[in-house]
Design a protein that fits this description.
single chain; Heat Shock Protein 90; five-stranded parallel sheet; five-stranded mixed sheet; alpha/beta; Rossmann fold; 12 helices
């Protein structure tokens, strides 16, 4: 890219032209703009995730408590609630995947199964589009090492993009293919839709870039795909011309390990451990600014341990309570007004290191890489919202039971940030 500038020289009428190469400058400006967009996106998505996970926590938690005591019909209804909550959590995870990709959980995955399940999940949208679908899948397994749930998310996004591209075409065609070439396994999603002009192909994986118009697209889908594939050490490419359809290829090194079969909702539901009452007078302090979540945690603690539960709405109230009483456990939210969880922990650590060793954090979204790294260094367990009663019992149990001398809180697993077993996301 060049910039041409001209100017008159004295009275002779001669013109001097100067040609400057500004390619690097424009690339730098584009990168700065992209970084600013990403920062804005991180802040926006993080706030949304925090608020939604906070609201979903009592929905899932009270449904689980009801299912423990209800009859068969009520358990069926609460099962629907928990299923819908899990689906909402998955939507939040998709948003967070763009702003801060979670660490993949690699396993052997058969790309054929990803393709088949994607077609099954989107059968309604495919039927509505009235397009023909071809599944050109290998007869033998096409295995890669990657996060199965994340790969399915990529396939879903690519198929939805293809359906948008062929919208309104009388003979729309969508195909999903798998093949192995030279040790590389690939999943291909192709369509005969409107295609992508060459001048746009270098930008289609940028956040917020869309040619659909704001009423039809956010410009996030392909950016999420690119982020996921990169996190799983793969590559995504596109071949297209305007009016000639598009062909997206997702490639990974082929794996020899047999793929683990999985299905939506096939994960075992954690069972609630039988009540193991702790000594009378054992107390837990719950620090949480959301009233409904405080009530939920009181019920969960009583159900799991039979202990007494005090509550505080922020770190300042908790600090006062800790100065007046001894607690077997301090279960604190991270993001709160007045004084947040990390600020509370620092003050307690300075005043009573022994009490600081009884902390467990919970959060709908931690709020920044720096804070995550700090909490990980502190080696404090973190429970993601929304959480199950089984997860609360698993993480908090060693602390509470330490009051009776059964075990020490040093035995608590999974310190720091991770993808929570109960389905919560960071």
């Amino acid at each position: 890219m060049f910039r041409c500038s001209t100017g008159w020289i004295n009275e002779t009428g001669q013109i001097c032209a100067c040609l400057d190469d500004i390619t690097d400058q424009r690339l730098l400006e584009r990168n700065v703009l992209r970084q600013e967009k990403q920062t804005l996106l991180d802040t926006l998505v993080g706030g949304i995730a925090h608020e939604l996970n906070n609201k979903l926590t009592p929905v899932q938690g009270f449904a689980e408590l009801l299912s423990l005591e209800g009859n068969e019909e009520s358990r069926r209804y609460t099962g629907y609630i928990k299923k819908s909550t899990a689906e909402a959590v998955n939507i939040i995870r998709q948003l967070l995947q763009l702003s801060k990709p979670s660490a993949p959980l690699p396993q052997a995955v058969d790309l054929r199964q990803i393709a088949e399940e994607t077609i099954g999940m989107l059968r309604f949208q495919i039927r509505e589009s009235r397009c023909q679908v071809r599944a050109l899948l290998d007869s033998s397994p096409v295995c890669v090492i990657a996060d199965a749930a994340q790969l399915k998310q990529v396939a879903i996004n690519l198929v939805l993009n293809a359906l948008h591209a062929i919208e309104g075409r009388p003979e729309g065609m969508l195909s999903l293919e798998t093949h192995v070439t030279g040790g590389t396994a690939s999943l291909i999603v192709a369509d005969n839709g409107c295609g992508i002009p060459r001048e746009n192909q270098s930008r289609i994986f940028d956040p917020f870039f869309t040619t659909k118009g704001h009423e039809k697209g956010s410009g996030l889908g392909l950016s999420i795909c690119f982020s996921i594939v990169s996190q799983n050490h793969g590559e995504i490419t596109v071949e297209s011309d305007a009016g000639a359809g598009a062909r997206f290829t997702v490639s990974f090194p082929q794996a020899d390990t047999p793929a683990v079969l999985f299905a939506p909702g096939a994960e075992p539901v954690p069972s609630v451990p039988a009540l193991r009452a702790v000594p009378q007078g054992t107390r837990v302090l719950v620090v949480e600014d959301e009233e409904v979540v405080r009530c939920l945690l009181q019920e969960m603690m009583r159900t799991s341990f039979g202990c007494q539960v005090d509550v505080a709405v922020n770190g300042a109230e908790a600090l006062t309570a800790l100065q007046n009483r001894e607690y077997a456990l301090v279960l604190s939210d991270i993001r709160m007004p007045v004084m947040n969880g990390p600020e509370l922990y620092r003050k307690v650590l300075a005043q009573s290191p022994e009490t600081a060793r009884r902390f467990v954090f919970m959060t709908g979204h931690p709020g920044g890489q720096h804070l995550e790294e700090q909490i990980t260094r502190w080696k404090i367990p973190v429970v993601a919202k929304p959480f199950s009663i089984g997860r609360i019992t698993e993480v908090c149990g060693p602390f509470v039971r330490a009051a009776s001398g059964e075990e020490t809180h040093r035995q608590v697993p999974d310190h720091g940030f991770s993808r929570d077993q109960a389905g919560g996301v960071f």
